[in-house]
């Protein structure tokens, strides 16, 4: 039976040949191309309230308030009963990144974290699952008796935003939940610096186990830094983790300055490359930078206009493909920069998640490289080891375009891939 519309398969049912293999939603490590991410699972709740509501619950207006589980549950129940909640958003920087990766790649990813054993209809946990791509494999989540994290945004009548944050059980994932097989077969392992705040919680030990397994099996580790204040507080520990384990660091300009002490984003990236193989640096209205290494014998000169800043002619070799420093006989540092797509959206609806969107595009290209190598092992593209399928400049374009899409909408999570009208651009991108 044929069905209308654009489909990858000619028939919905295999009517002309026997096929006992049914599609699986869960990742099959030995067969699938996928990435793995470790995150603090949290749901963002948006609600409009009066000032006396916040005063009654001991919430300080205009600030981020850390509240206990009981207080968060009481606030949530009251908001729900009075119909004040306007939106639920699945949150978490890595959860956002995995979701966006699976939307862009139309392929699987694996989320490591926790989820409540008991999920009620319309509960925050229910909304987390509903707002996450079905391509994100949640079968490796650890069940917990309590709630996952809740970030409640209270909007008062004057437009002021106040936050009540309850970690609940989001940091309770134990190292035993992580299997070596799921890490060793991944195209990349991605995580954030937030678990470093919780030395007394299981999630930090779980993070360290994942990092060890990824390095053991030569799986690229991607670290996103979180916030400027977090980097300032844990700067030495973050630096050491980057030096010991990390291939790719993703950060914004404030986090870059906190990490390296450099106010120039270009010099900050240059400094960070002494510790890792690649830097993805989003710089707001300035655009984004992708910096890394290429072997001198494989460098490719750009045809774009040459740019100079603190580093002269810094983008000269941006048509090169990124490599790990360890895979280069004569490594050179390569820098690429791109201005915001079409100057940026006419109206920015949401700045939360733009960096995560850019990172998901980079992860897609890293996974595409591994997939292509499996499918076409004798391709000239794999005569030497590269970290991505495409050049620095092309990955910049892709990451920039995804960031634009995030900035243009209310949610940090994509509801669909890039617009179909850009199919020709995407085809040209992948053909490069």
From TrEMBL:
Keyword Lipid metabolism attached: no
GO molecular function: kinase activity
InterPro entries reported for this sequence: Carb_kinase_PfkB-like, PfkB_dom, Ribokinase-like
EC numbers for this chain: 2.7.1.73
All residue ranges annotated as the Carbohydrate kinase PfkB domain in the record: 134-301
Keyword field: Kinase, Transferase
PANTHER family xrefs: CARBOHYDRATE KINASE PFKB DOMAIN-CONTAINING PROTEIN, SUGAR KINASE
Family per similarity comment: Belongs to the carbohydrate kinase PfkB family.
Protein known as: Inosine-guanosine kinase
Origin species: Marinomonas gallaica
Source organism phylogeny: Bacteria, Pseudomonadati, Pseudomonadota, Gammaproteobacteria, Oceanospirillales
């Amino acid at each position: 039976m044929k069905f209308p519309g654009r489909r990858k398969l000619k028939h919905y049912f295999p009517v002309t040949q026997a096929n006992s293999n049914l599609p699986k939603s869960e990742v099959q490590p030995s067969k699938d191309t996928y990435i793995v991410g470790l995150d603090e699972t949290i749901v963002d709740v948006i609600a409009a309230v009066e000032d006396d509501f916040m005063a009654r619950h001991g919430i300080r207006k205009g600030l981020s308030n850390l509240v206990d589980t009981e207080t968060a549950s009481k606030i949530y129940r009251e908001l729900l009963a009075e119909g004040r909640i306007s939106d639920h958003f699945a949150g978490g920087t890595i959860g956002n990144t995995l979701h966006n990766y699976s939307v862009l790649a139309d392929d699987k990813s694996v989320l490591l974290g926790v989820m409540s054993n008991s999920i009620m209809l319309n509960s925050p946990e229910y909304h987390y699952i509903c707002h996450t791509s079905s391509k994100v494999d949640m079968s490796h989540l650890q069940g917990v008796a309590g709630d996952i994290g809740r970030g409640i945004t209270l909007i008062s009548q004057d437009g002021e935003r106040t936050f009540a944050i309850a970690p609940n059980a989001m940091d309770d994932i134990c190292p035993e939940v992580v299997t070596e097989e799921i890490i060793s077969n991944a195209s990349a392992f991605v995580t954030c610096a937030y678990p470093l705040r919780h030395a007394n919680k299981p999630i930090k030990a779980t993070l360290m186990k994942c990092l060890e397994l990824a390095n053991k099996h030569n799986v690229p580790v991607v670290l996103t830094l979180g916030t400027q204040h977090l980097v300032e507080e844990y700067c030495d520990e973050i630096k050491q983790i980057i030096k010991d384990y990390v291939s790719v660091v993703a950060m914004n300009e404030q986090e870059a300055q906190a990490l390296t002490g450099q106010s120039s984003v270009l010099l900050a990236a240059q400094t960070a490359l002494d510790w890792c193989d690649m830097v993805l640096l989003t710089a707001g209205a300035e655009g984004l930078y992708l910096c890394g290494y290429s072997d001198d014998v494989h460098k490719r000169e750009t045809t774009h206009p040459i740019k100079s800043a603190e580093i002269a002619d810094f983008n000269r070799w941006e048509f090169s493909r990124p490599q790990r420093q360890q895979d280069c006989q004569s490594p050179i540092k390569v820098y690429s920069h791109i201005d915001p797509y079409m100057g940026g959206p006419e109206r920015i609806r949401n700045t939360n998640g733009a960096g995560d969107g850019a990172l998901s595009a980079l992860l897609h290209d890293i996974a595409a490289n591994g997939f292509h190598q499996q499918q076409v092992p004798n391709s000239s593209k794999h005569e030497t080891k590269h970290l991505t399928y495409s050049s620095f400049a092309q990955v910049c374009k892709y990451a920039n375009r995804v960031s634009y899409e995030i900035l243009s909408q209310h949610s940090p999570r994509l509801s669909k891939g890039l617009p179909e009208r850009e199919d020709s651009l995407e085809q040209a991108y992948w053909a490069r």
